[in-house]
Amino acid sequence: MKTGMDQKKQKILFINGHLNAGGVERSLVDILKHMDYTKYAVDLLLLEDTGDYAVELPPEVHVLFRDLHNTYGGFALSVRRCIAARDWMCLRLRTLFLLRKFLGSRALKSAATLLLGEHHYDCVIGFRPGICADLAGYSVKAKRRITWWHHGEFYVDRVAYGAMCSRMDAVAVVSRACREMLQDHLPELADKLICVPNMLDASAILQKVEHTPYAKNDLCIVSVGRFAPEKHFENIVPAAKALQAMNLAFMWLIVGDGSERARVEMLITENGLKDYVILEGSKTNPYPYMKYADLFVHPSYIESQGLTVLEAMALGVPCVVTKSRGPCEFIVDGVNGLLTEQSPESLAEKVLSILTDKTLYQSIKENTVCPEQFAPDRVMKQIEALIDG
Fold first, then answer.
1. Do 325 and 190 fall into the same domain?
2. Is 193 found in the same domain as 112?
């Protein structure tokens, strides 16, 4: 039974796919860790998996896990899978997804009842585009609706996304550049776009750094991220090759996993770099790798904000970062980091320049701190204002 105090709290629902290691999931967990639970009662609806970060959730968060894997794939395959598993909820949802092709997103109106029963919320937040945002926009019963945009490129159907956003009270974007990008594609959303950056809790990160996970004898460079095409980890190979040609004793650790790993691994082998460039795989806690590095290199061409770059800066590690939407808002080239053009040649040039110029390296290291606008208390004030309307 709920107490009188519970009944006075605003009921908030966050919707996301999972809590596996990733930038969006890190951002969501950080928000949930800093919510004011004297003011808000929070449900978290997960549609794919609980994931690595679930252990970090505060006990006040009520997790609602609904495994929708049986809805994946073609309709006939999905139906057979649902029947074999006696998964009647997913069977009904897959039928709704099929009807959506003919009736539009209004076919999702009854989906929330299948997933949540008759719950009503003061605010629902679809934390990703796609089914999470669509459920928040069309299905969940709520007084206020918000969706979040975390991506550095516009990859969704303009008409469908615009229609969903028209039902939202606000669309949170993680950088000014993202706001400009969405406004260019959907100018009718201009009044709804609100910049709310991902927070960076430097003290929490430092608490996760206990010891170095590698022998610190040589120069150490670290990169962290998904092995996805837009991350361009293959650009590390020419830079590492240039360092090798200078007979520098170094190791370059890449923390992460993904679809491009095999290709990058092949390039490393073909260029005789297996003793220098080491793939560490995905780590729930990459911070010990970052903290004890001499240099952090981020070769990605597409970043809405660049959370891993901010994490490296919070740990005091000088950064070389390829230019993209987010990092260009907080890195001043040659002052608190180095920015490269979107090419392997430029990345190699900047890595060599900072590692061979001690004065430049020390100057950047002294200025390597996480900017104040990403502090948790400042970001949470913005988020509470967004939720409260």
1. no
2. yes
Collapse the DSSP code of 369 into the 3-class scheme (helix H, G, I; strand E, B; otherwise coil) and give the result. Answer: coil
Q: Is residue 158 domain-shared with residue 274, that is, in the same domain?
A: no
Q: Which tens digits make up the pLDDT trace of 123-169?
A: 999 999 988 998 999 989 999 999 999 998 999 999 989 999 999 99
CATH number, domain with residue 303: 3.40.50.2000
| Cα 256 from Cα 249, distance rounded (Å) | 23
Tokens encoding 97: 């997804």
pLDDT at 70 over 90: no
Q: How many Cβ atoms from other residues are within 10 Å of residue 365's Cβ? A: 15
Q: Which residues, including other chains, have CB under 8 Å from residue 63's CB and lie 6 or more apart?
A: 43, 44, 46, 50, 54, 57
Strand partners, 188: none
- Per-residue pLDDT, 6: 56
Cα(318)–Cα(338) distance, integer angstroms: 8
pLDDT at position 2 over 50: no
Please indicate, yes or no, whether residues 110 and 242 belong to a single structural domain of this protein. Answer: no
Domain that holds residue 276: 202-369
139, 231: one domain: no
297 half-sphere exposure, CB direction, 13 A CA radius: 30
Q: Same domain for 302 and 334?
A: yes
**DSSP 3-state of 278:** strand
Single-letter amino acid, residue 222: V
How many structural domains comprise the chain? 2
The one-letter amino acid at 67:
D
Same domain, 271 and 185: no
Total-model pTM: 0.86
Measured between alpha carbons, how far is 255 from 260 in angstroms, rounded to an integer? 13
Q: Are residues 195 and 86 in the same domain?
A: yes
Contact 189, 182 (CB under 8 A): yes
Phi, psi of 227 (to 5 degrees): -80, 75
In sequence order, which residues have a C-beta less than 8 Å from that of residue 29 and are 6 or more positions away?
Answer: 19, 53, 56, 57
